[in-house]
Amino acid sequence: MYIADLNQKPYGHATGKIVCVGRNYAAHAKELNNPVPESPILFIKPGSAAVPMVPAFSIPVDQGEVHHELEIALLIGKRLKHASASEADLSIDGIGLGLDLTLRDVQNELKANGHPWERAKAFDGSCPLSGFVDTRRVPDWRNLTLCLKRNGVMQQQGNTAAMIFNIVGLLVEISRTFTLEPGDIVLTGTPAGVGPLKPGDRLEASLQDWIELETMVMGDNDVGV
Ligand code: ZN
């Protein structure tokens, strides 16, 4: 089922940059009292933010709330610059799940001061990633369901039909500003239901019936993580 996982360095490429999209589901923008954007809000996590999501990942324990944002992750397989829609469509080699871990208290302070988000969004380990499945099994980018349960309770449930900017359109837009390279990852925004994680939490995440995973949250002072 998996065509790539982080331990195997997909296609021989190290994980490149991770381009992320903010507020791509209207219900999520609303839950954080943010306006719905007119063009995609983009930010980048460095490759050093990527860690395997399974069997466990760690979160900072001394910087306020760490929120889960479950997102569809795209593994880029071809160089994209000023791409057309069909080039963008053909550039996606794998689809998986990513967590855009967010230090929410830190982010709110940065936003209030008009500062960049990186300290809240781009820290080491801020992007746990699942394995990726072959995109040839994706019949329709506009009807994909993702879910996240925390300690057995459904927290996030979304469908790409509710995206403000659809997956192919996002890649076209991103490639106008940032050249995407093989091994880069794109996180496509989170549906509503974000909330805090605590060390010891047990998470279950799914994408269609292609990916169903279980993982544990650990504190970053836990030995061996
Ligand atoms: Zn996000």
Give a verbal description of the structure.
The chain has helices at 26-31, 85-90, 104-112, 118-121, 167-177; strands at 2-4, 18-22, 41-45, 50-52, 56-59, 66-68, 70-76, 92-99, 102-103, 127-134, 145-150, 153-159, 185-187, 195-196, 202-207, 211-219. Helices cover 16% and strands 36% of the residues. It is globular and about 45 Å long. The two termini are 26 Å apart. The strands form three sheets. Strands 1, 2, 3, 4, 7, 8, 10 and 13 form an eight-stranded mixed β-sheet that branches. It is built from five helices and 16 strands. It has a single domain, classed as Fumarylacetoacetate hydrolase, domain 2, CATH 3.90.850. By secondary structure, the chain is of the alpha+beta class.
Question: Main traits of this protein?
Answer:
225 residues; alpha+beta; Fumarylacetoacetate hydrolase, domain 2; eight-stranded mixed beta sheet; five-stranded mixed beta sheet; 5 helices; globular; binds zinc ion
Summary?
Helices cover 16% and strands 36% of the residues. The chain is α+β, with helices and mostly antiparallel strands.
What series of H and E elements makes up the topology? Answer: EEHEEEEEHEEHHEEEHEEEE
- Say how many strands there are: 16
**Second CATH tier, the architecture:** Alpha-Beta Complex
Structural class: alpha+beta
CATH uppermost class: Alpha Beta
Query: What's the alpha carbon Rg, rounded to whole Å?
Result: 16 Å
Q: What bound compounds does this protein have?
A: zinc ion
With helices defined by DSSP (H or I, 4 residues minimum), what is the helix count? 5
Shape: globular
Measure the end-to-end span. 26 Å
Q: Which residues sit in consecutive blocks of at least 5 with pLDDT less than 50?
A: 1-12
- Largest pleated sheet: 8 strands, mixed
State the helicity in percent bands.
Answer: 10-25%
- Global mean pLDDT: 91
